[in-house]
Design brief:
The complex is a heterodimer. By secondary structure, chain A is an alpha/beta fold. Chain A folds into two domains: 3-26 and 295-402, Aspartate Aminotransferase, domain 1; 38-292, Type I PLP-dependent aspartate aminotransferase-like (Major domain) (Aspartate Aminotransferase, domain 2, 3-Layer(aba) Sandwich), CATH 3.40.640. Chain A contains 14 helices and 17 strands. In chain A, helix 2 (35-48) packs antiparallel against helix 10, helix 3 (58-77) packs across helix 10 and helix 12 (342-350) crosses helix 14 (386-402). Chain A is globular and about 75 Å long. Chain B has a single domain (3-151), classed as Sufe protein. Chain: A (Alpha-Beta Complex). Chain B has six helices and four strands. A four-stranded mixed beta sheet of chain B has the order 3-2-1-4, covered by helices on one side. The chains are: A alpha/beta, B alpha+beta.
Chain lengths: 405, 154
Amino acid sequence: MDIDSIKKEFPIFDNKIQNNDLVYLDSANSSQKPRVVIDRIYDFYSKEFSNVGRSVHYLAVAATNLYENTRTSVQKYINAKDKNEIVFTKGATEAINLVANTFGQKYLEEGDEVLLTELEHHSNYVPWHFLRNSKKIKIEFAEINEAGEVTIEAIKNKITNKTKIISVTHLSNVTGAILPIKEIVELAHSKNIPVLVDGCQGAPHLKLDMQELDCDFYAISGHKMYGPTGIGVLYAKKKWLDDLPPYQGGGGMINEVKKTGISYGELPNKYEAGTMATAQVIAFNESIKFMEKVGIENIEKHERELLDYGLDILRKNNSIKIVGNPKNKGGVISFTIEGVHPHDVATILDEDGVAIRAGHHCCQILHEKLKLPATARASFGIYNTKDDIDQLSQSIENCKKIFNI
Amino acid sequence: MDLKELYQEIILDHGKNPRNLRKTENFNKDAKGHNPLCGDNVHIYLKLNENKKVEDISFEGHGCAISMASASIMTDLVKGKEEAEVKEIVNDFLDMIKEKEELQNKILNEDEKTKLMCLSGVKQYPMRVKCATLSWHTLTSAINDFQKIVNTES
């Protein structure tokens, strides 16, 4: 695979960032965008724009078709059974909020338990916390082991007869641990417990097959998949989307509205109230096509190589501690440098054009458990090269020099 | 931009070996500060005597070199000053970090001013300004008994 030519498809790398070539190691936060995605937004707004699903004029019909084409592309990409199992949201956060809100409304009572893990991003904790306040449910956390992974046993340990839903990340944005989703789903289903998977880090880096995974819900973030911001996907089994109440009310999601009552629209309209992020949804189709063109197997292989190379180099550096050591790990390396706070690391690396993230990465529960107030994190995308990791390593040396380590 | 401006020797020294990093016994004023974006925390303890003079000031917390150095230098400089003077120093420092070239202050001597000016390097790093100002806002909260956790994001 020719990474140099793939990288050329991303215009951001044509620019100097503060006189440096950009070494972008923050893809777990958000990925850069290929030209096809950027151009699609421009073209749609310049030549084809109209709102979707409402008017009968030419542009409206064309735009509706384009919008629905993305739904079909996503369905195929993740191998969902039915096109109507794909709901567009403003992001993975909204997708999880949608499930927590509607499932919580219908199925959760005082004393019921929601099972999360200590690896969860705040977006897969806070929406459930709302229910802790409003419905007095309990939230349990499956614990991480020393490697920073959550095993099937850890999940098993926390399931009780009060567990009503399990909501877990596919791939930790801090330790990189890939969770055994299939086993978790099998175990949960054997006890009639539905499973939501936070696929923010899974979808951009792993092959997805909803029918094989068999999870009930899967939340996807568009902007981490080389797509635009403002677009996410909730995959949900049709039985749930038929069964759960609507999330937001407004135009587009209704069937009939009378003074005395309202009936709701069919899927997928039921969950897509108001004018959606039309241009972004349409451009997201290009992200899917881009990922299909590169091939998810190639993406996985390339990021695996980068991960091995990066771990190898950083492990040789005695001042560096890598957070977690999961057997099954995605392209994320969180680390600390002895004697240098991660924010200082990030500022010093930035001076060389190396963009990483520092902080708690929206995982305060995990950082508290690890007894680390903050970590530095380098995360990979398809455009990264071994040169990027060499530069990271060199800039880390500069940190140590400045701090006299 | 120049990293040497930001990470001057004195900053690195105070960052690594913060002065007054402890808890004042019998403190009579205190406040907490929090930066939710980076997770930095600071707790300032203050003991004002009957003449409203800072008899002791200390802090607990964790954060980057800039935030630790800033808290360390701040506690060093306000010790022994009167309450009104402390308020003036805080305001002048915050003005300096935000816009002004120089410290307008007449209370601090030249040495103290030089020390404080070392923190002016953060001006070139907008994302780091809050690291430098967190402890100062927290000191303001402690002195005025605001009884509210200082939050850099609200």
